């Protein structure tokens, strides 16, 4: 017996209501706020100002442009490293999949992604402490000069990238390893019969068949980097001198430190738009 329209709505209605309440309504409200000069510390604000907030964000020399540059810089450096390392490590696990105890090693390797990012940032802020951190102590034992890490604008952004690569490469490894394990062994056997070398197998069998997995990894990591907040908050708070300020932290600072809710909403929507744009490109690329 086919369900009536009323019965269908009874089943999907709660999901629609939840989606509207948790996603659509906040998005519309944030868009409306971004077009006002709302500052929750000043009750007289909230007037419609159009695109003034967006124009302010893209004014030459603004901190938001610096935050956008840092976000793109982290994305362009960290994600390729994570994908390259992820593939190499996944390939190693795939080759040694029949070795006794390799499953235990895989479990240990994914521990970093199980740790809350905020706690992870605090741990690394202690490890990379210029005076008391164990990293500089190890460098001193190796007769290498101590580094300022998070304390210098020249090294802070690279320290953030290093910590991000440390934490999220295991996630990429899991995805790629799942893709490699899904490839039929008959393809590799047929390639060996045809005399294909290892790099022919990689270029013409592995990469094409895990391309969608790589696309998923890129999309997820892209969204994570554009939403990066916990690590920045726990380690540098955007400093020193705005050298590690990213778009999500900029939006947080404007909204909750300076109470410029209109400006913070505008920054958040720009970040959301960039995520949607690049995710669409990756999906289109993976389909082709």
Domain tally: 1
**Number of distinct helices:** 13
Largest β sheet strand count, sense and barrel closure: none
Q: Which architecture does the CATH hierarchy give at level 2?
A: Orthogonal Bundle
* Cα gyration radius (Å): 24 Å
What percentage of residues falls in helices of 4 or more residues?
A: over 70%
The secondary-structure class comes to mainly alpha
The helix/strand order is HHHHHHHHHHHHH
Mean pLDDT: 87
Proportion of residues in extended strands: under 5%
Q: CATH homologous superfamily?
A: MetI-like
- Count of extended strands: 0
Which CATH class is shown?
Mainly Alpha
Notes on the structure:
With 288 residues, this protein is mainly α. It has a single domain (52-287), classed as MetI-like fold (Orthogonal Bundle), CATH 1.10.3720.10. 72% of the residues lie in helices and 0% in strands. The chain is built from 13 helices and no strands. It has helices spanning 5-34, 52-57, 63-95, 102-109, 117-127, 134-141, 153-181, 185-193, 198-209, 211-226, 230-235, 247-257, 261-287.
Helix/strand layout:
Elements: H1 5-34, H2 52-57, H3 63-95, H4 102-109, H5 117-127, H6 134-141, H7 153-181, H8 185-193, H9 198-209, H10 211-226, H11 230-235, H12 247-257, H13 261-287
Summarize it.
Helix content is 72%, strand content 0%. It has helices at residues 5-34, 52-57, 63-95, 102-109, 117-127, 134-141, 153-181, 185-193, 198-209, 211-226, 230-235, 247-257, 261-287.
Structure keywords:
288 residues, mainly alpha
């Amino acid at each position: 017996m086919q369900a009536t329209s009323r019965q269908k709505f009874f089943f999907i209605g709660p999901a629609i209501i939840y989606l509207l309440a948790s996603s659509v309504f906040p998005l519309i409200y944030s868009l409306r706020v971004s077009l006002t000069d709302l500052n929750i510390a000043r009750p007289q604000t909230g007037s419609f100002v159009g695109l003034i907030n967006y124009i302010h964000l893209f004014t030459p020399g603004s901190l938001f442009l610096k935050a956008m540059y840092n976000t793109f810089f982290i994305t362009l450096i960290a994600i390729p490293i994570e994908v390259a390392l992820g593939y190499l490590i996944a390939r190693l696990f795939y080759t040694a999949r029949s070795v006794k105890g390799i499953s235990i090693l895989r479990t240990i390797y994914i521990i970093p992604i199980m740790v809350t990012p905020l706690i992870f940032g605090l741990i690394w802020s202690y490890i990379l402490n210029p005076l008391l951190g164990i990293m500089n102590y190890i460098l001193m034992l190796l007769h290498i000069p101590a580094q300022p890490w998070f304390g210098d604008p020249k090294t802070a952004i690279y320290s953030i990238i290093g910590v991000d690569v440390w934490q999220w490469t295991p996630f990429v490894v899991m995805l790629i390893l799942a893709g490699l394990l899904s490839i039929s062994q008959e393809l590799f056997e047929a390639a060996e019969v045809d005399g294909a070398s290892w790099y022919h197998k990689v270029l013409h069998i592995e990469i094409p068949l895990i391309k969608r997995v790589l696309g998923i990894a890129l999309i997820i990591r892209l969204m994570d980097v554009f939403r990066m907040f916990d690590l920045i908050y726990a380690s540098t708070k955007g400093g020193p001198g705005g050298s590690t300020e990213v778009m999500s932290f900029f939006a947080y600072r404007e909204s909750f430190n300076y109470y410029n809710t209109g400006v913070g909403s505008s920054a958040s929507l720009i970040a959301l738009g960039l995520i949607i744009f690049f995710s669409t490109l990756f999906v289109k690329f993976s389909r082709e």
